[in-house]
Each structure stands twice: as structure tokens, then as C-alpha cells.
Amino acid sequence: MNSEEVFNEALFNVDLLVSSLKNPKRGNDTDLSQLDLKEFNSNMLLISKALSQECTKFSIAHSSPPFPEATITQSLAGLVCNTASQLVGSYLSLPSTVGATLLTVLCKEIESLILNLKQFIECIRGIVLRREKAETSLISTGILWEFCDRISSLPKTNAEAITSILHKEEQLISDGLQELNEVNSTQPNLSDCSSEDDESSESEFCATGIKILPSVKGLVKSACALLLRTQKIINRTPSCNYTKLDPLVEQVSKISNSVDDLICSLYVPINLAQVIDHSNVLASKLTTILETVKGIASEADHDGIQFIATAIQHNLQNLQTKASE
Fold first, then answer.
1. Which residues of 290-307 are buried (b: 16+ CB within 10 A; e: fewer)?
2. What are the respective helix, strand and coil percentages of the chain, to the nearest 5?
3. How many degrees, rounded to 5, is the angle at CA 111 between CA 2 and CA 35?
């Protein structure tokens, strides 16, 4: 086997790993209480470090002429591919009972790592077979190191995976709230709008925008409060079945888009029908999330949840009332 065939074989093996991630085959589900996630996460960390080391060896051996014989290249490539296979195999050994959110997060990250591994091998092949510059290999190796290092910071449980997504969504909504706080500075002043004609439609839009803005802010604040409360509930109740919370991720992922739609509808010229429609959609999505959260909340959380539910309806009703005046 010559060097070109060695690289082709290595790339073929990497493609097989990518395919296995896209079409995972899992065995019988394991009782989560019998699964040692700490051991799994420890193994993942060890394997990722080993993969980083094997890739470093492979890169150094092919950094400059004279390059190793094909048999040595094959041996080094085999170690890289075998270690990558262990990483993928470890992930595929997880049963679905660990939670769909955790599996999705891990799969995306490992798939990105394996795809970068493929790019890394292609860079080495270019250096050996086409005498390309070694700098490309250095860059590719550095990127691969970063992906291997990121394994240690991945969520360790389904609960962590869910709360990390909730936190990101909360940050997006907080950004939206900040934008709302700046609306007054970007909207024309009411006095400016009515300087020539108090009966002008633009003047009416400005007046309406000022009237409904507090209610819109209150609705967006309720969204932030709900996501914060949900994160606290998840972190405080480790004994709950977090697979029941997987639907929450899809529900929450749509909230920031609804907030963006609502904020955009506030800019002049304001379309009241759109503002009310976007507000109703956002309130409906928040109410759906509230119902899901109630399923894992303790009795001590019920008052807090009810307060948020009341705030959502209060701000929605106020907005509708102000808009109709």
C-alpha cells in the first residue's frame, strides 16, 4: 500500500464515523439509574486527550521531508482513526434514556470534531503528496486541539444540556429587552410627530407606541423571568425525570424569534394589528412552557410560577387595552 492509498483509507474510515453519527444505532435502553454518567464523561475526556496526542504525533511526523514510509504513515493514521472510533463508539453506547437534548448536543460537537479530523488528514495528505505548505497543517492541528479540549466543557447530564440552552435563549431575550429600552431614543418624539398636524397618522402611531411600550416590556420581562425560574427549578430538583423536559427545548427555542418579531413591529410606522398578533403568539408560547415546567416544579415553586403566569396575562391585557384607546 502506497502513501496515497493510506490516506484514502484513513479518510474512508473517518467518513464511516460521520455516517454512524448521522444514523446512530442504539441497543436496548438502559435504566438511567444503572448508568454511570460520571464514568462515561471521564472516558470521553481521556479519549479526547488521546486523540489530540495521536493527531499531534501524526502531524509532527509529516511536517517536513523526508516523510515516513507508507507503513509508518499507515500505523500512525490507524492510531488516529482507532482513537476517533473509540470516541464515537463511547457516544453511541449511550441509551436514549439519558435524554434527547444531551444526545443532540454531544452528537453535534463530536460530529464537528470528526469533520475537522477529516480536514486535518486532508491537509497532511496535501503536504505529503502535493508538497503543500506545512502551515496549513499547523492551523488544522490547532483547530483540532480546540475541539478536543471542548469535550471537557460539554454538558454532563441532560439537565445541564437543557439549562445551557435555556441560558442562551435567556441571553437573547435580554438583548431584546435592551433593544426595547432603546426604542424611545430611536422613535421620533411625540412632540416632533405632532408639530405640524396633531391629527396626522404618524402622530397617532407615536402616541400609541409610547402607550403600549411598558406593556410590551412587561411581556418580554416575563419571558426572561420564566426562563430564569425554569433554570433554577431544574438545578434544584436533580431527582426529576429530565427526559420529560426534552420538549421544553423545542418550545424555548422559538421564544427569542417571537420577541424579535414583537420588537420589530414597534418601529414606526407601527402596525397595531401586528403588535397585538405577535404579543398573542409570544404569550401563548410562554403559557405552553409554563405548563411544561409545572410538571417538574415542586410545591414551593407554584407561587412563583403563578406570579409569572399572572404577569403574562396582565401585560397582554394592558397592551390590548392601550392599543384600543
1. bebbeebbeeebeeebee
2. 80, 0, 20
3. 115
Confidence check: pLDDT of 182 > 90: no
Q: Which three cell numbers stand for residue 198?
A: 396633531
| The one-letter amino acid at 309 | A
Domain containing residue 127 = 3-153
- The x, y and z cell numbers of residue 207, run together, are 402616541
For the segment 145-159, what is each residue's pLDDT rounded down to a tens digit? 999 999 999 999 988
Distance in angstroms (rounded) separating the CA atoms of residues 308 and 304: 6
Phi, psi of 122 (to 5 degrees): -65, -35
| Structural domain count of the chain | 2
Query: Quick check: pTM over 0.85?
Result: no
What CATH number does residue 222 fall under?
1.20.1410.10
> The C-alpha cell of 258 is what?
417571537
Contact 136, 144 (CB under 8 A): no
